Amino acid sequence: MRLRFQPWRVSLGLAALSLLCPAWRAHAAEPTATRIAEHITLKNGFDYICDHRETVDGRVRLYMDAKGANFIEVSAADIVSDEQVSLPVAVPAAAPAPIAATAPVAEKLTEQQLKPMLAQAQKAYDIDEDLLASVIKQESGGHSRAVSRAGAQGLMQLMPQTASDLGVQNTFAPGQNIKGGTAYLDWLLKRYDNRIEWALAAYNAGPAAVDKYHGLPPYRETRAYVARVIHEYNRRFALRHKSDAHPAAQTASVAR
Length: 256
Fold this sequence. Notes:
By secondary structure, the chain is an alpha+beta fold. It folds into 2 domains: 36-88, SH3 type barrels, CATH 2.30.30; 111-247, Lysozyme. It contains 8 helices and 7 strands, in the order ββββββααβαααααα. Helix 4 packs across helix 5 and helix 5 (196-205) crosses helix 6. It starts with 33 loop residues before the first strand and ends with a helix.
């Protein structure tokens, strides 16, 4: 497949993109308390940690919290495996101070919900927000509570130890996850002298694989991942610049 590159560094005007966290091993401390949850794997490759599930009108609802405020609905045929897992329960030393109530964040975020967080990440790290959006689409499909088989979590699929190293306290908080994932991608780009393909491959397969092969590793999954992310970014890039070139047409379309 021939890859076509477009600008990705906002100020430098270079090209393309990627994502899917490397399989770094997390070394977690022994939890003081645990709760039972379900690890669900779907046909599309997405994994979810859900509090419980129930069947409603022939569809299965995977609830992300005990109260049932957050759920994703799937077909029973889409579930390929499930298992019980023990998750740590945080035990606060003292009762937390009351905070103002906020609306719960949807499990699957829309483009409109993602945009302000992506714009903030672009400003902080000088990486095109459309590139970041393309990575999120490939990594999690916009599901903030997605969990991979390897344990990568959230929108940009951060491994727990990687997230901790980046200062991310809650990998399922969209803003924190995007900031951490963008920081990691920025680090990879600098490590490989802005060679996009290498950085994307390292995000997917890990820096050790890229270092071993001095470039794109010969892994079909990794090469396909890089190609898909670049394709999506090129699509977004072209659409954005087409809209910029015809603002009147865009306004008329919205008005209708």
